[in-house]
Amino acid sequence: MAKAEATVEELVSMIERGELRLPEMQRQYVWRSTRVRDLLDSLYRGYPSGAILLWETDEDVPLQSFAVSQSSNPYQSRRLLLDGQQRLTSLSAVIRGEPVTVRGNRRPIELLFNLEHPEQLAVVTEVEENSDDSEGEEDGELNSDEADANEDELLKRFNKMTFVVATKALEQLPQWVKVSEVFKTNDNAPFFRHAGVTSFDDPRYEKYNQRLSRLRDIRKYMYRMDVLERNLSYDEVTEIFVRVNSLGAKLRSSDLALAQITAKWRHSLQMFQDFQKKCTQETGFDLELGLHLKNLVAFATGQSRFQVVGKLSLEALQQAWEDARKGMEFALNFARNNLGIDSPALLSSPFLLIVVAYLGHRRNYALSTDEAQQLRYWALTANAKGRFSRGSAESILDQDLATIRDGGGTNELIERLRQQFGRLDITPEELEGRNQRSALFKTMFLAFRAAGAKDWRSQLAISLGHSGSQHRLQFHHIFPKALLKGSYTTREADDIANLAFIGGKTNRAISDKAPVDYLLPLVAQQGATPFETQCIPVEEKRLLELEHYKEFLQERRKRIAERLNAFIGANT
Questions:
Q1: Alpha-carbon distance 481 to 248, whole Å?
Q2: Could you say which of 300, 368, 514, 522 has the lowest number of CB atoms within 10 Å?
Q3: Which helix or strand (DSSP H or E) is residue 419 part of?
């Protein structure tokens, strides 16, 4: 294995000219903007940033596209990038000022540089152990009414950082400049004007000048490259790719499985991605490619573990994919039309879809009326209780797949739920202490929407799909957190029984008013029905007063539990 070195600028140019390509075994670009921010910060400080692994080959290897644009490469001989895609794609996007393609959507990575950053590192990077690199879209999320509540605290935190993900508010402040604009020019005059530096005598002039030069020097950052020899076969390189990433724990098991599948089934990645895109466009379910691969493995083996994928024959993979694709189509249709779940944001775990897909397949997509009703009951109960959110999710999924594989059906699936949770109805006590991260919160939204809940001003039915900030759905604290502060804990303030669903404009109009002050006038104007659909007790004024907050929570929990049980239905 040869050793080499190249600067960031050279590597970015290699990508742009099409001299550096991606083999099909690679996963897609998935980094969040915050990961790009942290990478830039590391390079700015000269911290180590790992090595780049390349393979030089003349072999006609299946390729996939970078998330940034490339020129066509007229030469057959090329270098393939095996490790470093996320870093180099991010750097290419920032330095060239070009958007990246993520799941078919083009979006910019815009970072801001703090000309007044502290000399010493002031903010330690926060590591989320089980984070998913994939960056979610704004639409289809349940947003909090507290998002803008602590702007002053956020600004203080940002001022201690060197790089941040851009916001319109920060862009207007004089000390923040766009990173991509700095890389486009060596002229510092526009940035000095933005910062209000009008003369060489300004004490900030030299400091800003040095910092902007240091930022541009990221292009000179030197990466070590390990280059695999030309005489290695594609299968050998795939094995190296899997081993390197397994030992380094850099990729998820689904990414390693994808490498093994595509090595055996050339050009299959595009087919998987096309189906992923089709599901997004036709059903609104933008699911991770890894979930579709897990579904493929489930249909091929009757269990969900990726460890066995390397032992599957090409024929077994091809047949399983054909079946898995049909099964997922059934599951998504069932979720949307039988369960009322029209967004992955409303699933406590997407593993639920694999169980529905596999059951539909084993029943040849011919369910009796009773079995369809029982499947609905199982799915909604499993979703509300968080079946795949406790313990080992894959072990629980394998239990359900084994139940179906061995001839069991909905009765047996429901019995497994009962073994896990005991009673399957939802009690008021079960809601206590739960917040917006609870699986029950998602079911509460489903139940309220089914009951006809609307925004209290616009009368738009609550939906995850509304466009525009004034209509985009938020979860609202009926007793505002600012009102409860000092008298009740954060846990009590965020209790699921204190949350309702309204639009952003309505939320801002309410601000931190007490419910006795804002709800009763709305009830007088609109009647009680809009609030009864969200189980809010408005008929008794005292429950809307601050001193009776805990009684309000108790009463609303009772009503929510009744509504959830009615929505889920009985086990027939």
A1: 43
A2: 368
A3: helix 410-421
**Helix, coil or strand: residue 148:** coil
Would you write out the chain's pLDDT as a tens digit for each of its 572 residues? 788 899 999 999 999 988 899 998 887 888 889 999 999 999 999 999 889 999 988 888 888 889 999 887 655 457 899 989 999 999 999 999 888 887 777 888 999 999 999 987 665 454 333 344 444 433 345 555 544 445 667 778 888 899 999 988 899 999 999 999 999 999 999 999 999 998 989 989 999 999 999 999 999 999 999 999 888 888 888 888 877 766 544 456 787 788 889 889 999 999 999 999 999 999 999 999 999 999 999 999 999 988 888 889 999 999 999 999 999 999 999 999 999 999 999 999 999 999 999 999 999 999 999 999 999 999 999 999 999 987 789 999 999 999 999 999 999 999 999 999 999 999 999 999 999 889 999 999 999 999 999 999 889 998 887 766 676 777 889 999 999 998 999 899 999 999 999 988 888 888 889 999 999 999 999 999 999 999 999 999 999 999 999 999 999 999 999 999 999 996 65
- Cα–Cα distance between 340 and 343 in angstroms, integer? 9
- 73: Cβ–Cβ under 8 A, 6 or more apart, which residues? 17, 18, 19, 21
Whole-prediction pTM: 0.72
Residue 157 contacts residue 126 (beta carbons within 8 Å): no
| Three-state SS annotation for 424-457 | CCCCHHHHCCCCCCCHHHHHHHHHHHHCCCECCC
Instruction: Map 23-83 to HEC letters.
Output: ECCCCCCCCCHHHHHHHHHHHHHCCCCCCEEEEEECCCCCEECCCCCCCCCCCCCEEEEEE
Q: Which 3 state secondary structure label does DSSP give 92? A: helix
Determine the Cα angle at 520 with ends 519 and 521, to 5°.
95
> Residue 232's CB: how many other CB atoms inside 10 A?
17
21, 80, 236, 260 from 229: Cα distances, Å? 16, 11, 11, 20
- Cα(185)–Cα(12) distance, integer angstroms: 17
Domain ranges of the chain: 2-123+136-222, 253-424, 429-568
- Cβ–Cβ < 8 Å for 301, 354: no
